[in-house]
Design a protein that fits this description.
The complex is a heterodimer of chains A (496) and B (216). In chain A, helix 4 crosses helix 5, helix 8 runs antiparallel to helix 9 and helix 11 packs antiparallel against helix 13. Helix content of chain A is 66%, strand content 0%. Chain A has one domain.
């Protein structure tokens, strides 16, 4: 690589990619490159929180997101004061953008839970670089998701009816309905994800508190750090709690989107009434979630100089997950068609042929090209490690997965059993504002998170460095990955 | 590096925070369960009417039948509020100069009805049929209380959906012979359980709990 501009000798680190994707037999791959001490890790992460001003791109993105939230607020208020008729819903198509957005956002969240819980239990150490912001993404995505069922009920002031609370009407939600299971699944998911994220944040919040230079920051971070002093007892309890929460969160990776899929699968509508839905939805959720993690990680590591911590190896691994789940999703699409033919059911056959060649054919083919074809490019190592390509492909997957939900929901409803009741759903400006506004809400929350909380689990990342190994023999020994790190450094312009 | 920690006394706040955190959801549930009930919101609603008409005097003392004024109660869903002409059947003869009746006379002359204030008001999405209840032996007193003792009409029951359902689920506790429906002074408990069960069979009463029974 060419000469790197120096900034106090160390500041430029994190802005260049180091290829650490190669697997050397007998050696653990490096997950933190170019850092020799724990202090460097801390400084690299908190730089984005402690810099006087956020990067220009952050400010621009924040302004755009805020404007989108304004549009969301306007659209939602207009909806509340006027009625759900302002959406493009009609008699057969009673669910459209609202539920599409709900399922899309709930799905996005799944990558965070998978990374934080399942990869933790499987001792996949590369998760430490990405878990913090993937979990943040989960929480913000579930917030966006929760908005939609809340407003699509029509009379939002009665949205508390979703919960089984004793009331003067002696009226309870229908416990046999998956829509109620959904309320439980999503609220459990949100609570567990939030707790998991927060527990993981405690040691880092204490770091922020200890580094804070003014009273307000000290109080704010100090309040949420819960008096963490890093004693042995603190660490012991922290790790127990973390392990238990990981075990609690693990089933949620599978259960939440299974329950979301029941919203459709338990009805008798052709196109919805399929047994493949739960695994198909879960695979799709993880697929879209990882794509969103890549979409967020690529600009974030670039902007805040975190390339030493969210390395090419992390991105490569995530792209492999996208490839695997993309194959599963592609398999599910073809299996749906096979079963539709194999069932011999006229309506079932029609529903699927109509999806591909009916009035929404373009949505179907957007979905197939984005979800089935693009991830196949990740078979190539070059594509998996190319930053621009993976960013573009991850955007394609995001678009494709949004269209998947649109195709499932709208095409099945628009052309059901009776041709006389067929209709066409066309989104209104309120539909579109609400959809874009949800992205704005997500953006605002995520950008605030980037600015005010450590984007990477500082304490956890340190544990995957060779220096954290009790058998580590010091910098001079040239033992294991430490030496490799040094070599990589000098190669990158010698900013050692 | 000097480390900022909250002072030791702040630990004493912890139990309070935990208690507040744990009871907050319970508090929300109690607010919905009791706070949103018409019992709390409306209580014994007794608005001041434009004319101080006393049911206690007309029904309790003089023995006027409910149907003299609310004459459609046995045949239609709505129990009519009487027109001024009904008042004037008697009041052209008695208390002709009473200042309490000034508005009644004015209404009679101008033809503009008196604007009575509705006390027993259901949601406009709830369809209640008076005739269905009255002809099958649900006494006026079940829902309206002892109107014959009220100087000012007030709500005697919550009129919540839960209250409607309580009767629909246990109709045998709330029926009487249809001939006694307008007898406000006789409580339903004067009839034995067996007699009431007999009425349920005799009049073929099957109160439905379906949503569409009341919300059409």
């Amino acid at each position: 690589m060419t000469t790197i501009p120096h900034d106090h000798g160390r500041g430029v680190r994190g802005f260049v990619d180091v290829d650490n994707t190669a697997d050397v037999p007998g050696k653990r791959a490096q997950l933190v490159v170019g850092m020799d001490t724990f202090g460097e890790v801390t400084r690299a992460v908190v730089r984005s929180n402690e810099s006087k001003r956020p990067p220009m791109a952050w400010t621009v993105m924040f302004a755009i997101s805020l404007a989108m939230v304004g549009a969301l607020g306007f659209a939602v208020n207009y909806l509340i004061f006027t009625g759900v008729g302002v959406w493009g819903l009609n008699n057969p198509v009673m669910w459209a953008f609202d539920i599409t957005n709900f399922v899309f956002w709930v799905g996005i969240g799944h990558a965070g839970t998978l990374i934080s819980a399942i990869l933790f239990l499987f001792r996949q150490k590369w998760r430490t670089g990405i878990n913090r912001f993937a979990e943040a993404m989960t929480i913000f995505a579930v917030i966006c998701a929760g908005l939609f069922p809340g407003i699509h009920v029509g009379r939002v002031w009665l949205a508390y009816w979703l919960f089984p609370i004793p009331n003067q009407m002696e009226m309870w939600p229908q416990f046999r309905s998956p829509l109620l299971w959904d309320v439980f699944a999503v609220s459990t998911y949100f609570t567990t994800s939030l707790l998991f994220w927060y527990v993981g944040l405690i040691p880092d919040l204490a770091t922020m508190r200890d580094r804070a230079t003014n009273k307000v920051k000290q109080l704010a971070y100090g309040l949420f750090a819960l008096g963490w002093r890093g004693s042995n007892r603190h660490w012991h309890r922290y790790e127990r709690a973390y392990l238990l929460l990981a075990a609690l969160a693990t089933p949620l990776v599978l259960s939440v989107h299974s329950v979301v899929s029941f919203d459709f699968a338990t009805s008798q509508l052709p196109g919805w009434h399929t047994t493949i839905f739960p695994p198909y939805f879960v695979a799709g959720a993880i697929f879209s979630g990882f794509a969103m993690v890549v979409t967020l990680a690529v600009p974030a590591r670039q902007l805040f100089g975190l390339k030493d911590l969210i390395t090419l190896r992390h991105l490569d691994n995530m792209n492999k997950v996208i490839l695997v789940t993309g194959c599963m999703v592609g398999y599910a699409y073809s299996m749906e068609f096979f079963i539709a033919w194999y069932s011999g059911a006229l309506y079932e056959k029609f529903a699927f042929v109509n999806r591909a060649f009916g009035q929404y054919w373009w949505a179907y083919w957007i979905m197939v090209s984005c979800n089935v074809i693009t991830p196949q490019l990740f078979w190539s190592r070059k594509v998996r490690t190319s930053i621009p390509l993976m960013f573009i492909l991850s955007l394609f997957v995001n678009v494709g997965m949004w269209f998947e939900r649109f195709v499932i929901i709208v095409t099945s409803l628009a052309n059901d059993f009776l041709p006389t009741s067929w209709d066409r759903f066309v989104p209104t400006w309120v539909d579109i504002c609400t959809m874009l506004g949800a992205f704005g809400l997500f953006g605002v929350l995520f950008l605030l998170f980037c600015r005010f909380l450590p984007m990477i689990a500082i304490a956890e990342v340190k544990t995957v460095m060779p220096q954290a190994d009790p058998h580590w023999e010091g910098y001079g020994h040239g033992h294991g990955a430490g030496a490799h790190a040094a070599a990589a450094h000098s190669h990158d312009g010698g900013n050692q | 590096m000097s480390r900022f920690l909250f002072p030791r006394w702040s630990n004493a706040l912890l139990p309070f925070i935990l208690i507040v955190g744990a009871t907050a959801p319970l508090y929300a549930v109690l607010i919905v369960a009791y706070g949103f009930s018409p019992k709390t919101l409306d209580g014994q609603y007794a608005p001041i009417q434009p004319v101080p008409y006393s049911h206690a005097l007309h029904v309790g003392k003089l023995g006027l039948d409910c149907r003299y004024c609310h004459n459609t109660v046995e045949t239609t869903s709505h129990a009519a509020v009487p027109p001024t002409q009904t008042c004037m059947n008697c009041h052209t003869q008695i208390h002709r100069e009473s200042p309490k009746l000034a508005k009644v006379r004015e209404s009679y002359e101008t033809g503009m009805p008196i604007e009575w204030i509705k006390v027993h008001k259901l949601g406009d999405y709830a369809y209640f049929n008076h005739s269905a209840h009255v002809t099958r032996g649900v006494g006026c007193v079940e829902c309206h209380g002892r109107v014959d003792q009220m100087e000012v009409v007030q709500r005697a029951v919550p009129l919540s959906m839960g209250w409607c359902l309580e009767c629909h689920r246990n109709a045998e506790d709330h029926v009487r012979p249809p001939a006694e429906v307008f007898n406000l002074s006789k409580p339903t408990s004067d009839w034995t359980k067996d007699e009431r069960l007999g009425l349920i069979r005799k009049y073929d009463i099957h109160p439905s709990e379906n949503c569409s029974t009341c919300h059409r």
